[in-house]
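> run fold Lysine transporter LysE
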Amino acid sequence: MSLFLTMCTFSLVMSITPGPVNLIIVNSGINNGLKKTFAFISGATIGFTLLLLLIGLGLNTFIAKQSSFFTYLSIGSSLFIIYIGYKIIKIKDNIDIYNNEEKTPYFYEGFLIQWLNPKAWIASISGVSLFSSSDFVFYSFILIYFFICYLSLIFWGYIGEKVSYLLKIREYLKYLNIIMGSLLILSAMYLFYIQFI
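> ok
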């Protein structure tokens, strides 16, 4: 029972704490509502779960032999997060916040961002090192993480949707999008900076 609680706690802490994916989900919840954000949430959850599974099956051993992999991952993730941040900043303010398809993040973006998200790699490698003592423990951990990750990301989308009621005035929404997009870009630039200092 204590192992189950440890797996649940680890999964919850790694899923619910703020990161680029959660920031995008909150912003999409604000701009599009939870229902339209669900495709991105699904992509992010499935993308992470697949990453976790492949690392557990030995992808990390292969990657450890590639000395420049994490450098390229850092560069790629920084560029992709900057791109998403730019998209958020450029969202046109619209009073009808739930009726603008150009703002809606896609399933493939959620899937891809997890593979380019340093937090997802750290969570996966740490989780595999902690919970791979047997096949049963490992696959139980993946299943637990899948459900907790899904619920955590849905929670962030729900929070965004509820905040949207306070931001019906388009000027507020415009400034929030600029702030959220800028935070994503700054976090990506920081990731890039720490890779090369």
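DSSP finds eight helices and no strands in the chain.
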